[in-house]
Amino acid sequence: MDTTPRLSFVNFKKDSYIVVEGNQNTDRFFIIREGRVRISKVVKVVKEDGGDILGPGDFFAVVSAMSAHSHIETAQAATDCTVISVPKEQYGEFIQKNTAVAMKIILQFSKRMRYLDAALTKLTLKNNADEDVSQLFNVGEYYAKINQFNLAYYVYSRYLKHCPQGEHGTLIRERMKKIAPYVTSVRKEFPPDEFTRKYAKDTMIFSEGEPGDELYIIQKGAVKIAKIADNNEILLAVLKPGDIFGEMALLESKPRTACALAYEDCVLLMVSRSNFTNVVVVQPQIIAKLTVLLAERIWFIYKQLANTLIDNPLGRIYDALVLQLEKNRVNFTVEQPYTFDFGLKELVNMVGLSPEEGYMMMKKIMENRKIQLVNDKIYVLDVRDIAQQAQLYRRTIRKAKV
Question: If you average pLDDT over residues 312-328, what whole number do you get?
Answer without folding.
Answer: 91
